[in-house]
Amino acid sequence: MRRGRGDVRAAVGAVIAMVVLGEGLWLGLELGYWTEAAVFLAAGALLTAFLTLRLSRAREPRFWLCAVLAPVCGVAFYVAEKLVLDSLIGAF
Questions:
Q1: For 22, phi and psi rounded to 5 degrees?
Q2: CA-based nearest residue to 52, from 78, 37, 70
Q3: What is the pTM of this model?
Q4: Are 17 and 48 in contact (CB under 8 A)?
């Protein structure tokens, strides 16, 4: 992320936050660990806000992509994780 420019920096920031948000959704919705899920979701939201702020301060033209892509991709990550794990392990 340090040497990338523009859209690449915003997308990489979103990918980092996406994993944390997706895991938080998995912990809460699938496993029922709501306390741990709340921690993951709060950390993902703070990470998204921090990375978006850093990108805006670095004067990246599309800094807002991180804030938009992180939650959307977090949900997509959860859905992909659910589909893959359900097919490998079997539905609960």
A1: -65, -40
A2: 70
A3: 0.79
A4: yes
